[in-house]
Amino acid sequence: MRKALTVFDQFRKDEDGAALIEYSVLLGIVLTAVVATITLVGTWVSGKWTALNTAL
Questions:
Q1: What's the alpha-carbon Rg for the chain, to the nearest Å?
Q2: Looking at the domain assignment, is residue 5 inside a domain?
Q3: Cα(13)–Cα(5) distance, rounded to whole angstroms?
Q4: Which residues, other chains included, contact 11 with Cβ-Cβ below 8 Å and sequence gap of 6+?
Q5: Is residue 42 part of a domain?
Q6: pLDDT score of 54
Q7: What pLDDT score does 29 carry?
């Protein structure tokens, strides 16, 4: 039982897990921004392409 408590105490003091979670959240935010940007640019290009085809 003492060994389990020691392992649990070491796990609680370890900050690598917290850093991993922080980087994961940051990666999620960046990916969301990239996907939103690509979607908006794609919509804009599609509108310009349609306008060009109509003009021709």
A1: 24
A2: no
A3: 12
A4: 17
A5: yes
A6: 94
A7: 97
| Per-residue confidence (pLDDT) for residue 43, from 0 to 100 | 96
Please indicate, yes or no, if residue 37 is contained in any of the structural domains: yes
Positive or negative, the CA dihedral 29, 30, 33, 39 is negative
Structure-token match 């979670």, residue found: 21
* Count of domains observed in the chain: 1
CA distance 56 to 54: 5
The pair of structure tokens assigned to 17 is 């897990």
Give the pLDDT score at 34: 98
For 15-50, write each residue's pLDDT tens digit: 666 777 888 999 999 999 999 999 999 999 999 999
Domain span at 44: 27-56
